[in-house]
């Protein structure tokens, strides 16, 4: 089984999980819960669509059932935010909802546009370093977009725990993956110059 099977199934199940939480805690009149469902639920379905239209080869690797279930369990940490919202009947002010939605939208743009650009570029020019567009000044704009997406989700909970989970993923999974990718791209002759003029993760900062 491929890793994407477990990742895609979890992403696709997110909307159902949030609806179940809303039902269990009777949060049908909570605007924050509905906004969260709209954001995280739509992201899950967009991920599944992306996986079919322009898949990331990183998730094509074969894996065991045990490790696949480990992936599922790890991704379920992201469901802490809707659980906190529904179990605590947390409601955010209107301006705060707008801020979280805006962060999510910028994240969606960066994440999916970067992945689409990379996929198309490698289809047209295989074995070439992608270093234009969103990739010109940032070597991982897709991860930056994902950071904004999950930051928007986590802030909606108005609790420190989802932000801690995001930081955990950043330190344990994302940054090591970025370092591994840099080491792989070092085989290209023009990578040194590209690395010197670009940031690892956050445009113009880090």
In short:
The chain is mainly alpha-helical and 206 residues long. The chain has helices at residues 3-24, 31-53, 65-75, 80-87, 94-124, 141-156, 160-185, 191-197.
Please give the count of helices: 8
Alpha carbon gyration radius: 18 Å
Mean pLDDT: 92
Order of helices and strands: HHHHHHHH
Give the uncertain stretches in residue-range form: none
Q: How many DSSP E strands?
A: 0
What percentage of residues falls in helices of 4 or more residues? 55-70%
- How many domains, as an integer? 1
- Helix/strand-derived class? mainly alpha
- Quote the beta fraction: under 5%
- Shape descriptor reads globular
Distance between the termini: 36 Å
Q: How many strands, what sense, and barrel or not for the largest sheet?
A: none
Throw out a few tags for this protein.
206 residues, mainly alpha, 8 helices, 70% helix
In terms of topology, how is this protein built?
Blueprint: H1 3-24, H2 31-53, H3 65-75, H4 80-87, H5 94-124, H6 141-156, H7 160-185, H8 191-197
Task: Report on this structure.
There is one protein chain. The chain has helices at residues 3-24, 31-53, 65-75, 80-87, 94-124, 141-156, 160-185, 191-197. It is mainly alpha-helical and 206 residues long. α1 packs across α3 and α2 runs parallel beside α5.
């Amino acid at each position: 089984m491929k890793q994407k099977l477990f990742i895609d199934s979890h992403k696709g199940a997110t909307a159902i999980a949030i609806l179940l939480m809303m039902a269990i805690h009777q949060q049908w009149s909570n605007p924050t819960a509905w906004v969260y469902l709209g954001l995280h639920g739509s992201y899950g379905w967009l991920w599944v669509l992306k996986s079919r239209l322009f898949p990331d080869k990183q998730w094509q690797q074969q894996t065991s059932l045990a490790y696949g279930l480990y992936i599922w369990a790890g991704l379920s940490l992201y469901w802490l935010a809707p659980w906190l919202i529904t179990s605590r009947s947390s409601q955010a002010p209107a301006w705060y909802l707008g801020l979280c939605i805006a962060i999510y939208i910028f994240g969606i743009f960066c994440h999916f546009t970067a992945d689409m650009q990379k996929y198309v570029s490698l289809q047209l020019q295989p074995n070439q370093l992608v270093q234009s567009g969103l990739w010109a000044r940032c070597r991982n704009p897709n991860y930056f977009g994902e950071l904004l997406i999950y930051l928007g989700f986590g802030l909606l909970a108005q609790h420190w725990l989802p932000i801690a989970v995001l930081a955990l993923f950043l330190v344990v999974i994302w940054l090591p993956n970025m370092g591994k990718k840099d080491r792989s791209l070092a085989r290209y002759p023009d990578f040194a110059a590209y690395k010197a003029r670009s940031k690892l993760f956050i445009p113009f900062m880090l």
